[in-house]
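thought: fold this chain, then report.
action: predict
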Amino acid sequence: MVLALGLYLAPAGFWKRMQGLEKGTSVATISQMDPEGSAGQRFAVLQTALRIVRDHPILGVGLGAYGLANARYNPALGDLDTHNTYLNVLAENGVPGLILFFALVISVLRTVHDTRRRVRRALPAQAEMLRWLEIGLIGFLIAAVFGSQSKLALFYVYLALLWCTSRAVRAQIPPASPAAVPLPFPLDRTMTAVDRRPGPGDPRSRPA
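observation:
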C-alpha cells in the first residue's frame, strides 16, 4: 500500500530516470541511455573533483568551497557538488580531513558494535535496538557514496545519538554477583597463602 502510494506521488523526474534505465538494455551509449545527461554530468564532476584533489591533497580547497573550485576548474559545470560525501570531504579538507572523518565514524560504529555484543545476553531488547541503529548508520554510509552528506547536521546528530545511546545501554549492564568473584586465601606475615580448611584431626572435620 505504501509502495503504491509512493509510486503514485513520485515526481516526473523519477519516471524520466526509470525510462533511462529501461533504455540501457537496448542502447550502447551513455547519451542514449540517459537523455537528461545525469550520468554524463556525474562523470564530468568526478573527473573535476579528482583534479581538485590532485592539486590540493593536504589542505583541500576549504570547507564549503568546493562549488567555487568546481566552477573554476570546469566553468561549463558551474558550482555543482561532488554527489559523493567522501570525495567532497577529501576535496574540501584534504587527506587529513578524510582520515578524521573516517576516524569519527568508525569510533562511533565500533562503540555501538562492542556495546551490542556485551549486552546481547543480559539486555536482549537493548541489543536489538543497537543492532538496528548500527544498520541505519551503515545504510547512511552506503548512501553517502551517491550524495554529499558531510555538511548535514542530521548526520552528526545521528552519530551523537548512537554514541549516547550506546553509553546509556552500557550503564544498564547488571554488576557481577559477589558470589561469582573467587576469594583469595588469607596471607600470613611472610605473604604466603595460608590454607585454613580443617584437617583430618580438627574437630570441625568430624561429622555431626
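thought: worth noting. Helices lie at 2-9, 12-23, 30-33, 38-55, 66-73, 85-119, 124-143, 153-171.
final: C-alpha cells above.
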